[in-house]
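Input sequence (284 aa), recorded before submission:
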Amino acid sequence: MSGFFARRPPDQPGLAMFLNAGDPPLPVLADVMRMLDDCRVDCLELAVPFPHSVTDGPVIRRSAQRALADGGGGLDEVLDFLSGILPRLRHLRVALLADWSHTVRGLTVPGFVRRVADSGVDGLLVHGLPPRLRAGYLEAVQEAGLPVVATCYAASTAEVKAAAAESATAYLYLVAHYGRSGGKLTVDRQELADALAALRRTTAVPIAVGFGVRSRADIDLLHGLGADAAVVGSAGVARIEHALAEGTDVVEEFHTFVHTVSPYSASRSFSKPLGGTSDDRPTP
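Predicted structure, token format:
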């Protein structure tokens, strides 16, 4: 089992952070991931960067552009990087996000899934997967033993929510509202609570809510409505951007940000450089 959000403190929401692989550059990202692990952040949604995302706002789009310009954000580079770092993590789980059109198209689905599974990641989310390929994709991930992150919106139809709940084996990412990433958390509380309750009746995997989550108050609100975890994206990526622009320590600045949003990491510290291994990280 991948263990997403399974070891969070009782009655506390899980925490996932989003970053583009290559922003910051991979050697710095290794230290960021070790810091997240030491702070007991539950999940890193790590994207193989791709341009022109229609669902992302300017902060994440600029992040993807930086990663692509640096040249270290290709699929092979990202998977090699993950193969090296994942055995060293004790708590943090990694869900890889790959865009169909930019990253997966041109590869066979079983071949792509096998390569991802061999890297040791804990879950996979394919962005923009054509519906006609869904059955083959689900067959490939099941054969590879690779947990699936599935998505739907709080306002999605019952059929779409049911399909997401059925396919999710890592966790279900419930998008709080329509629009582009980077704005404020704008939710119809009753709609979101109803969506969470309905999904809870049909799936046993954790449900993480994201899109506009910027603060600990946002995370507490979502947990109170029934979410198992919250996903923080643009607000954290903006701190990476600021540190890179100002020439300050990326890891230190992101560490400070994590403390502002994490429900339970205030007493945690981290050390650099990355080193050592752990034997309590289960094989996905």
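Checked by second reader. Strands lie at 14-20, 43-47, 93-99, 123-127, 149-153, 171-175, 207-210, 229-232.
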